[in-house]
Amino acid sequence: MAKNLSKSFFTSLPTVKDTVSKEVFSIINQNVRINLPAIVVNVEDYSSSQCIDVQPLIGATYTDGDYYKSPKIKKVFVKMNNAGTFKETYPIKVDDVVTLHWTHKDLNSYLNLSDKKEFSFPDEDDRWELNDVYATVGFGTRSDNQSPDPDNYVFKTENGDYSLVITPSGDVTEDSVNKTVNNETYIENNNTSTVNTTTREENSTEHNINTDAFTVTAPQSTVDGLLDVTGVTSAPIFQGVIQGVGGGNATSDKEFSATKLHAGDGATGTVVTQSGVTLEFVDGICISIS
Questions:
Q1: Pick from 120, 115, 107, 132: which is nearest to 33 by CA?
Q2: What is the C-alpha separation between 39 and 133, in angstroms, rounded?
Q3: So where are the chain's domains?
Q4: Tens digits of per-residue pLDDT, 47-64?
Q5: What is this structure's pTM?
Q6: Regarding the domain delimited by 14-137, which CATH topology (the fold level of the hierarchy) does it fall under?
Q7: Per-residue pLDDT tens for 69-98?
């Protein structure tokens, strides 16, 4: 009986291999990190150095049941898309969730360089530190997510004031409260383009729209400058210009030319342009230019 007890006692002891493996696992678990979601706690350095303060949302739990939150990490660089001649940025605010990525070598010496193309040569012993990390925007849970569209590309603001939807067939729908476009040359080539805006302002030296269907629905449209129409144009706004106040003749203070011009709703009258050219309309059709 004593012999069996002695054998049982020794076989219950952990082997050297088990002890070493457990110790190695403990060291790796405490010092080696890969990726974690984190919450943003400070953005004071974001605009100046593209850095934020964060706190990982996944803490540590010990075998005895104790647990603690992960410590806060200061001045974590935020990595965003930047390649070729293009770059994009996102606003970040406190309580946003980001993804942390740890590097296998010291990152701090590189982040202190004045040129991102320079080489860094950190001390080989200086690794596995908590601050050897960078962040990318976004994370989520299975319940608290971005409600992705399985078929279309969607770009939108959180409050819904702007959204852009592009289908695989090339149809584009844009919804915006206010939109300003500043271009030297603006060219649109679309099969179908739908833009819904409360206020849309476009400032361009040249604006060309080549599309199969282009519809503008607005209570009032104003053209300030030369209007060159090369096709049939029909709109209530032209009726107002042609008829004038009370249905009489109207005078335009801007010069314009057209191959064909439809007044809308059978308007009859004349329009005298700034250069003295008179357009005569009968039943909404321009019958003479003198």
A1: 132
A2: 14
A3: 14-137, 147-217, 225-290
A4: 999 999 999 999 887 777
A5: 0.64
A6: OB fold (Dihydrolipoamide Acetyltransferase, E2P) (2.40.50)
A7: 889 999 999 999 999 999 999 999 999 999
